[in-house]
Design brief:
The complex is a heterodimer of chains A (about 180) and B (about 90). Helices cover about 85% and strands about 0% of the residues of chain A. With about 180 residues, chain A is mainly alpha-helical. Chain B is mainly alpha-helical and about 90 residues long. Classes of the chains: A mainly alpha (about 180), B mainly alpha (about 90). Chains A and B meet through helix 1, helix 3 and helix 6 of A and helix 1, helix 2 and helix 3 of B.
Chain lengths: ~180, ~90
């Protein structure tokens, strides 16, 4: 009985730590995005000009990749009672994560030269900081998905699935703000 | 995972894909006026809400994180809409 209570308390503590981690990410991204919005308000013309150099079609396709990846992580979570059944969806989700990283790097390849342009540099500095920070999260998350797929444990699955969906959520906010609106 | 859960999840993915493609089309076809910008941000809210409710499994019950996450989403998107309004008013 005492051991059961101790295990329940441990699970609660894990959950609290998970949400603290999630909120530290959301606050960090929130500050970056709000900073971008404030700077873009005062330098609206240069930001509109800089935005013309982005390729929203590629970023839109990447959004679809991340959404499908999120779907496979959700499938893994629904299968969490059978740990053997979570492996395949997690591997697919991780591969889609790496696909997102590859597409984003390809996108950067065409954009990096604008960072040196005196008129466009403020936009592109903020753009590379926000999307680069997000990209690192995707790369790290994809590696973690593979590790959990290799040695699945329910607590780790809940942790990485929640973080992956939050990374997904952050991109859904970044995409329209940086590229479209 | 039951057959029903699988069908629900596929339905959510289909809605997310539709919103994503719809948002991109609205943004590509419309100019920098407030209505399409509001539409794109509204679509982003709809997508984010689906991820929070269905992918993060916060739809059922009274999970405080559901409200907190939707608030975060709303604050950022309202700030983006306000920024567009201010820029258009000052132009």
């Amino acid at each position: 009985m005492a051991m059961e209570t101790s295990l329940q308390q441990e699970a609660k503590d894990d959950h609290l730590l998970l949400w603290i981690l999630v909120w530290s990410e959301l606050i960090a991204f929130g500050i970056l995005i709000l900073g971008f919005l404030v700077v873009s308000t005062f330098d609206a013309e240069a930001f509109e000009l800089a935005r013309l150099h982005l390729r929203p079609g590629i970023a839109g396709a990447n959004t679809l990749v991340l959404l499908v990846s999120g779907y496979f992580v959700a499938v893994a979570m629904r299968n969490r009672l059978d740990l053997e059944a979570v492996k395949r969806p997690l591997v697919i989700a991780a591969l889609l994560g790496f696909c997102f990283v590859a597409v984003k790097l390809f996108e950067y390849w065409g954009e990096v030269r604008f960072a040196a342009d005196a008129t466009l540099d403020t936009f592109f500095e903020l753009y590379f900081i926000i999307t680069g920070f997000h990209l690192l999260h995707v790369a790290f998350g994809a590696i973690a998905l593979l590790l959990v797929a290799w040695r699945p444990a329910r607590e780790n699955l809940v942790l990485i699935a929640t973080l992956w969906h939050v990374i997904d959520l952050v991109w859904l906010v970044i995409f329209p703000i940086l590229y479209l609106a | 995972m039951t057959r029903r859960q699988h069908e629900e999840l596929v339905g959510v993915l289909a809605m997310l894909m539709t919103f994503a493609i719809g948002g991109a089309i609205v943004a590509a076809l419309a100019g920098p006026t407030i209505v399409p910008i509001a539409a794109v941000l509204g679509i982003a809210f709809a997508k984010g809400r689906l991820v929070i409710l269905d992918f993060l499994e916060l739809r059922g019950g009274h999970h405080p994180m559901r409200i907190a996450l939707i608030c975060w989403l709303s604050i950022i998107l309202i700030a983006a809409l306000s920024r567009s309004l201010v820029v258009l008013l000052l132009a």
